[in-house]
Amino acid sequence: MGKLNLTALRVRQTAINQAAAGKIKKIPQWVDVVGDIPPAQVLVRNQPQQHQLFRQRIKTDRETLEPKVVFQTQEKRVKPKKASRLFQPVEIKFEEDQLRKEFYRDHPWELARPRILVETSGKDFEKHNWGRLQQPGKKLDGESVVQRQLWLLNNTPDITKTEAYDIARREFYQLRLQEDIERRVAAEEAEATGAEFGPNMLSLGMELEDKEFERWKEWAQMEAQLLNQKAASFSGAPESAESEDASVLDKGVEEGAAVTAEPTTRRSLL
């Protein structure tokens, strides 16, 4: 390794020496400021301290049989970083991140619901009591399930993460079902009083599917005609595909005429 370049640390002394030697006519104005507030002399940067991620749990003491707050380490001991990542900032982790990841992995369609992107202050616990899932002034979403599960983990003795997840998820399903019933009843009441709604999403989807099916049917007929023409050209048959289709169509018309004429004949015999 080469020598350290200390030119930046000696910039004030260099400016003073140049003024004394007559290379510059006037000393720069920043010389006194750099003298009062010199640059840092430490050339070695210390590695940032790696913090462990702790979680709060309530365990029942075996001796006293009373609930007791216990802080557990969520992850193993953090290994030292590589030399290329030595000076990167410490990654910030919270227990809610893993709970949120698991919930949206099991319920991906919850991310498709419209949400209001409002930055929170980080003090939601002061105005929300997650002893219950539904909170006044807050829309029910996946974040409610995450906070409810975390509250159960921090306040219920001897509860596992799976049990807390099942409890919060069951409450979430019940509230979602209640919202669907209220929405359906409101729509029926509005229709009873004369309101008219447009086609729903199911009707629009069926309409698009029918259009796509008709387009595919036209494409399939053209492909079938091309295949028949290729087969006729390879086999050397004098009759083309169009004549075959015409003959089949004429035969179908004759059969239809015979079927329609049969009831008339029976009626004349009677």
TrEMBL record:
<dbReference type="GO" id="GO:0003735">
    <property type="term" value="F:structural constituent of ribosome"/>
</dbReference>
<keyword id="KW-0687">Ribonucleoprotein</keyword>
<keyword id="KW-0496">Mitochondrion</keyword>
<feature type="region of interest" description="Disordered">
    <location>
        <begin position="230"/>
        <end position="270"/>
    </location>
</feature>
<dbReference type="GO" id="GO:0005763">
    <property type="term" value="C:mitochondrial small ribosomal subunit"/>
</dbReference>
<protein>
    <recommendedName>
        <fullName>37S ribosomal protein S25, mitochondrial</fullName>
    </recommendedName>
</protein>
<keyword id="KW-0689">Ribosomal protein</keyword>
<dbReference type="InterPro" id="IPR016939">
    <property type="entry name" value="Ribosomal_mS23_fun"/>
</dbReference>
<dbReference type="Pfam" id="PF13741">
    <property type="entry name" value="MRP-S25"/>
</dbReference>
<comment type="subunit">
    <text>Component of the mitochondrial small ribosomal subunit.</text>
</comment>
<comment type="similarity">
    <text>Belongs to the mitochondrion-specific ribosomal protein mS23 family.</text>
</comment>
